[in-house]
Design brief:
Structural class of chain A: mainly beta
Radius of gyration of chain B: 18 Å
Shape of chain A: elongated
Oligomer: heterodimer
Number of helices of chain A: 0
Largest interface: A-B, 13 and 13 residues
Order of helices and strands of chain B: EEEHEEHEEEEEHEHHEHEE
Shape of chain B: globular
Strand content of chain A: 35-45%
Helix content of chain B: 10-25%
Number of strands of chain A: 11
Strand order of the largest sheet of chain A: 2-1-11-10-7-8
Helix content of chain A: under 10%
Strand order of the largest sheet of chain B: 6-5-4-3-2-1-14
Number of strands of chain B: 14
Order of helices and strands of chain A: EEEEEEEEEEE
Distance between the termini of chain A: 34 Å
């Protein structure tokens, strides 16, 4: 018997393999910055007009640090940084939200689709 | 001064964890309404558990909470024993009765923690939970006017309005807006006029920044659920339109409703509001979403 023999009932060495992290990304399909896919990583990513923003926008409707993306367990959350024009999730103005696969996020003139596998 | 609303549980009747409830959530009702440092907790469904965990991470952790229950049905109280702040020394959770000397919500929660139902005794919580009241149905709590009003639900139910400095949030769940003579129902093609809705509820919701309203059913489902104590989403929309509220959150999602089904209800209600020329933003309440007004 090998340790990975999955045919043995109750084999103590066989457990489901759960990843501790999930991949999160934003696919932009409208607005400045053009079509692009941004992989979300680290403790915090900034969406905004600031030169050092991770997801940089040039629209005047975007605040410098418009919104933050942060991990929340294995999920990802978006936070409006009290921006002037707000953050919209599926057409609804939100202050913060846990993101779900397929969510449409609008920041200023830019529209993103969130993917979380 | 802004008002914040965060949804911790949006599902009606019974917790519904499933792949198809992942977006809007499967926890039963719990909504946080916050004006500066004053935190109101509306209902203690299973969503209150996550709220409790979150409160403990805030700096500084709040020491004073105001719990308002709409009624005693299971889905609105079942999370209470799992609310982590209950077990924190120095915590004060005020549970409000709808009028002076009404400590029925307090007794209800303590009864739920008798040994037949839960291993930790209510007595072990010390004085962290205290009974409080809304004299004559309303009270100024740290500058927030909290008003209660009766809803149409088997066994009775209470709605709440929170107002401060021009901000107004209304929590109106477990309420059946019954079809009245002259109403078009079922309005499957969405061609009928606005329905007749109770004037007292229109008055309570008038000009609210956010109305959180029972909208458990679509037209077709509601036909088979008359008198069950919940509303169809078109009636909730019509109430919101007539009360001229700015935002409507469809709430108390049916346990059978999929995320896609809820999306479809939202779209149908938006079309209806547009058809009636209303400036009304409509969404479905979704776990983990916070809104600012």
């Amino acid at each position: 018997m090998t340790e990975i023999d999955a045919t043995i009932t109750g084999n103590a060495h066989i457990l489901r393999r759960q990843r501790d992290t999930r991949r999160h990304s934003l696919e932009q399909f409208e607005g400045d910055g053009g079509a692009r896919v941004i992989t979300l990583e680290g403790d915090e990513m900034v969406i905004g007009r600031a030169p050092d923003a991770h997801v940089r926008l040039t629209s005047k409707r975007a605040s410098r640090q418009h919104a933050f993306l942060r991990p929340h367990g294995t999920d990802c959350m978006i936070f409006d940084n009290d921006s002037h024009n707000g953050v919209f999730l599926n057409g609804v103005k939100v202050y913060s939200a846990v993101l779900r696969d397929g969510d449409v996020i609008q920041v200023a003139d830019s529209i993103f689709v969130y993917s979380g596998d | 001064m802004a008002a914040f609303v965060k949804f911790w549980g949006t599902r009606g009747s019974i917790p519904t964890p499933a792949s198809w409830t992942r977006v809007y959530g499967g926890n039963t009702p719990c909504v946080e309404v916050r004006f500066e440092d004053t935190i109101f907790v509306c209902d203690a469904g299973s969503g209150i558990r996550e709220l409790g965990k979150d409160l403990l991470t805030r700096q500084p952790p709040p020491k004073d909470l105001h719990l308002l229950l709409t009624h005693a049905h299971w889905d609105h109280i079942q999370g209470f024993p799992f609310f982590a702040p209950l077990y924190l020394p120095g915590m004060k959770i005020r549970v409000y009765g709808k009028q002076a000397q009404d400590d029925s919500p307090y007794r209800l929660l303590s009864g739920q923690m008798s040994s037949s139902y839960f291993p930790v005794s209510f007595r072990d919580l010390g004085d962290s939970v205290v009974a409080d009241y809304l004299p004559e149905g309303k009270k100024d709590i740290n500058g927030v006017l909290v008003s209660s009003f009766a809803l149409n639900h088997p066994g009775g139910c209470i709605g709440y309005s929170f107002s401060k400095e021009g901000r107004k949030i209304v929590y109106m769940t477990d309420n059946e807006l019954e079809i009245q003579p002259g109403d078009t129902f079922p309005d499957l093609d969405d061609a009928g006029p606005l329905r007749n809705v109770p004037e007292d509820l229109v008055a309570m919701a008038r000009d609210a920044d956010l109305l959180i309203a029972d909208a458990q059913y679509d037209e077709k489902t509601y036909e088979a659920r008359l008198k069950w104590g919940h509303s169809c989403c078109f009636s909730a929309t019509d109430l919101a339109i007539q009360a001229k509220v700015k935002n409507l959150a469809l709430f108390h999602h049916d346990p059978e409703d999929t995320d896609r089904g809820i999306d479809e209800k939202v779209m149908a209600c938006r079309r209806r509001a547009t058809r009636h020329g209303a400036k009304l933003a409509i969404c479905a309440a979704r776990e983990g979403v916070e809104m600012k007004f």
